[in-house]
Design a protein that fits this description.
This protein has about 180 residues and is mainly α. The protein has seven helices and three strands.
Amino acid sequence: MGRGLDGGVGSDEVDLLVAAWRQERPDLDVEPLQVLSRVSRLARHLDRARRASFAEHGLETWEFDVLTALRRAGEPYEMSPGALLRATLVTSGTMTNRIDRLAAAGLVRRRPDPEDRRGVLVSLTDAGRARVDDAFADLLRRERELLSSLGKREQQALSDLLRTLLVPFDATDTGVR
């Protein structure tokens, strides 16, 4: 294809490690490293960009996860704790702790569920909505920067290929993020 060590786009760290493994273990097919090592390295870069974006807005990753789950729910931006834990894939004890901390920070509030006297609903405060909206806009700006070397068609093709890889895993997942 004319890429990597063969010329073209340029070489990266994965090209070097694949070449080393081919030399050291010519008996093994190291082709999966071509894709999955790059996905792993890209995930680390994405994680750094996300953490930086959230920190700039005074949020931890888990706070962003809970606040965006509420924001995606649409008006009135509220969910039951059970729905939140399914959306964020954490245990009930963890979710209770997270809601407590977000409420203490003034980013969410609890109110009795009018349809279930034993239940509560968690909703975004105005401050929580403003914070998550700003953090999300910043995150999208950073993610666009990460993808800037690809054109729109290339981004769509990559998205389609990654979806093909992820669908079998998502089919066994219990929640939607």
